[in-house]
Amino acid sequence: MIKHQINYILGLTVAMILSVICGCHRFTDESPEWKPTNNVHNIDSSKIPTALFKEKIKVQPFVDLRTNKKEITENITTKDDVAIWCTDRFKELLKEAGLTIVETAETLDIKGEIINFAAVEENLYQGYVGIKISARKLDGTREWQGVVKGKSSQWGRSHRLDNYFEVLSDAYLNAVEELLKNDNFLISFK
Does residue 82 lie in a domain region? Predict the structure, then answer.
């Protein structure tokens, strides 16, 4: 009986040690961090029509359409509002691209709906972002709607919070770059 209990306790101890070594850990209530490994200056702003630089752009608060709004990965949950995080990053990236972002007296209104915002760790860390963007001139002359997607992957040590946030940031940056390179979007606001 005692030998059985000792084996049971040893088995539990080994299982606990292996779970720590394997990185089988959940991160809960983490705040997403902006940790891109690239930067927005990769965008060729010469492709952006001059007319878009003259617009005063108001970015409305994004809406999170994901089913589980608190989950970033199977291993990370957040206490923060992902929609607010995405809205703030979107504004910053448009500013860095040279566009004018305003809170009032706008001439162009942009809305976003978050369809996908996730990171996965398999052989590589992979980040996926999908946002439905709606843009319209306030004078009613032009509108555009479409989905932009961003994807990123990188190698990293297993189960590292930094790696999750790096691929998410890069995927998000990639989605915004896709918008600013989208011919249909750019033609709509020439």
Answer: yes
pLDDT of residue 23 exceeding 60: no
* Rg, Å, the chain Cα set: 21
Q: In this structure, which amino acid lies at residue 142?
A: R
Q: Quick check: is 62 in a domain? A: yes
DSSP string covering 67-125? SSTTBSSSSBB-SS-HHHHHHHHHHHHHHHTT-EE-SSS-SEEEEEEEEEEEEEESSSE
Give the phi and the psi of residue 183 in degrees, each rounded to 5: -55, -40
pLDDT of res. 47:
80
Q: What is the CATH number of the domain that holds 104?
A: 3.40.50.10610
Query: What's the whole-number mean pLDDT along residues 4-17?
Result: 54
* pLDDT number for residue 129: 98
